[in-house]
Amino acid sequence: MPPASTPVATVALPALRQRYHEGRAALWAQIGSWQGPARGIHAPLRRLARLADDTLRQLWRQAALPPGCTLVAVGGYGRGELFPHSDIDVLLLLPEALELEAQPAVKAALEAFIGACWDVGLSIGSSVRTQAQCLHEAAADVTVQTALLESRWLAGARKPFELLVCALIDALDARAFMQAKLLEQRQRHQKFTKTPPTRSSPTAKSPPAACAICTPSSGWPRRRAWAIRGTNWCSAVWPRRSRAASSRPTRRC
Fold first, then answer.
1. What is the pTM of this model?
2. pLDDT digits (tens, 9 = 90+) for 145-182
3. Quick check: helix, strand or coil at residue 119?
4. Which of 4, 52, 96, 168 is the most buried (most CB within 10 A)?
């Protein structure tokens, strides 16, 4: 006889909601009243992400999805930090052989999981894809590629997540990626400067003077490239300019 599955300890949604809201309120208050050094703010931001991690994992266990499904954090949330009021972007990674339209029970379980996330107060941005669909979307849209490059396993099967990361790394063209990000940044700045002030919403990413998290001028793309294949972003985008600095010691970002 097959071994009996381990029973999942369930938590009622109202109790989970209260626990999440209380923890989030305390961390928001700590972040809002922060007066210490700027580097110190990363600690409560990481704790806020861990609070979301724990809540999502509990909901995932209770969803009882079939083996082979994986819950992945992507985008800024994938980096393990979460700012107040930021979206919690997640990927529901499905096995290639799973046809949702042919399995209404699995589709209903996924919809119930997403609904439960909103019920407890998690402002999630969710996508449901297979590995092949992820690679296709990443190749067609640099914004999707950027989000997937900073993915992080949360729950479910680990192997599909590891295979996805390997496939993304193999498909990464550092020079093309950085050129696409530079173009994306210029288009964003151009759109912002041409938008009347009454129609523009406050954002830290659009103004030309902004220090956006997801722009090439920030450090995370360089750190990520170094981690996955030792790529030097400057040499990838400006090869001639980087030759003059090639004799100097390389600084790890």
1. 0.76
2. 989 998 999 999 999 999 999 999 998 888 888 887 78
3. helix
4. 52
